[in-house]
Amino acid sequence: MELNEQKHFKVKLWLEGLFGDEPIPQYEINNKTIEILEQMADRNMRCDRDAEIVIEDMVQKTAEYDFEAQRISRILNDVGITLTSLSQSGSHSIKTLSEVSLLLGLKDCSSSSLMLGIANQSCALDAILDERAEEKRVYSRLLAKTKSSLVKANTLQRALETLEEQHTLQKPILDKRSQETGFLQSKAKEYQRIVKELEEYQKSLGLESSIFHENLVKKAEDINLLKEKSKPLKNKLESYQNLPPDLSLAKVKVEEAKRELARLEQQLSSNIDMLHI
């Protein structure tokens, strides 16, 4: 099997860096050995990087501690207290005061600066409380809207379920009506076809239009109209029975009425005869 030169070179560099000026112990050069040594090199380099990070962190913390010690020492010197004259609790108290001063952003150790810092913190606290109160009000409004939305959603869900139930119940009826509608439509088409065939058959027979239904209906209406017109004449004729003693004039009127009545009756008979044809 061909040796991986890249891995071998990597392992060689690691061993040279590890042993420095000392001679590197002999090892068998094959793929398996190189693979094992490469894994060891990777783990060793990771450990070295982790150690370097820890060392850098410790160096940084040492510098921070030195700076903090110098700062506290300067503060103590300003107030006339040496660091060696304080007990452990005193040193802790001084450190706490220093942190409070930094938190309040004091310019100096005067009472006015302290009160100003406390006032600023109080204002900040009030602002935070106001923000929390506003957030609480907004939360309450959102909660109310959420509850209302849930109620509406539940109502809509129940309405949907009701509609689905109604749809399930009415579906057979709708299907039946749909089938009936299809049947009626087919029947209507069939009747239209029959009517068309009958009309064509009627045209082929050459029948007179006077015997058509609409013409017969019109003649019947005309007859009824003539009957209505003859009623006043009959009533008028009957009234002639009570005419005055002037006989000649009465006879003339009666004859005129009789002729008019005879004419109407003849016209009525003619129309009736036409209906019977």
Tags for this model:
mainly alpha, elongated, 0% strand, 6 helices, 277 residues
How is this fold's topology laid out?
Blueprint: H1 5-19, H2 31-78, H3 88-104, H4 111-205, H5 213-239, H6 247-276
Helix pairs in contact: 1-2, 5-6
Coiled coil: 247-274
Subcellular location: Cytoplasm, Cytoskeleton, Spindle
Keywords: Cell cycle, Cell division, Coiled coil, Cytoplasm, Cytoskeleton, Microtubule, Mitosis
Structural description of this entry:
This is HAUS augmin-like complex subunit 1. It holds the Pfam family HAUS1. Belongs to the HAUS1 family. Among the domains are: 1-82, no CATH class; 211-242; 246-276. It is 84% helix and 0% strand. The protein has six helices and no strands. It has helices at residues 5-19, 31-78, 88-104, 111-205, 213-239, 247-276. The longest helix is centred in the middle third of the chain and has 95 residues, at 111-205.
Average predicted confidence as pLDDT:
78
Which regions contain 5 or more consecutive residues with pLDDT less than 50?
Answer: none
| SS content category | mainly alpha
Q: Main sheet?
A: none
* Beta strands, count: 0
Order of helices and strands: HHHHHH
The coarse silhouette is elongated
Task: Please work out how many helical segments DSSP would assign.
Answer: 6
- The share of residues in extended strands comes to under 5%
| Span between termini | 125 Å
Q: How much helix is in the residues?
A: over 70%
Radius of gyration: 62 Å
